[in-house]
Amino acid sequence: MHHIIQPVMGWENRHLYEFSINTLHFADSRLVDEDFGDVTDVKTVLLEDVFPKTRTTAIYFYDFGDGWKHQVELIEVSNAPQNELLPSFVSGQNACPPEDCGGAYRYRELLEILTDHSHEEYESIVEWLGPKFNPNALNSLTIEKGLGSLGSRIKGYERSFK
User: Whose CA is closest to 64, among 128, 15, 125?
Assistant: First the structure.
């Protein structure tokens, strides 16, 4: 699931992550040490074990420095045959916060700075984000491309441990 969330958010898998459901914690055990606490390795569980029924929710923590926290909820289970590749992108709104932007509070500040050309940080923020960044624009093609390359992304991730 982590590898699906990354391209949807426009992120590049640069930080630690964890899923939490009630008192259970799931993470890639190769990335954490004993200080992380009691963690179940994500490679040992199936999605249907984590989300046994609809309305089950999990919290996805990413980049503990920036402190991203997402609630993930199972809305529906379909056993109907699919004529499309999964996972697929259905819809969304706005651009996602750029990786390493400082978390939700700093992202709000960045958005405010972008509306004020006289702000002392305006030039450096625009340079860092790039001239094409538009917080109101969702790039569904980039998301679909990221999801379409999911297999190669996961293989590359696994190769990094060898």
Answer: 15
80/50 same-domain check: yes
Helical packing angle, 140-148 and 150-159, nearest 10°: 60
Please indicate, yes or no, whether residues 49 and 128 belong to a single structural domain of this protein: no
How does pLDDT run across 12-55, given as a tens digit for each residue? 999 999 999 989 999 999 998 888 889 999 999 998 888 989 99
Among 49, 40, 51, 50, which residue's Cα sits nearest to residue 18?
40
Domain holding 112, by residue range, is: 94-137
Residue 58: closest CA among 49, 108, 67: 49
- pTM listed for this prediction: 0.89
What tokens were used for 102?
């400082």
pLDDT confidence tier of residue 86, bands split at 50, 70 and 90 = confident
Q: Cα–Cα distance between 19 and 58 in angstroms, integer?
A: 6
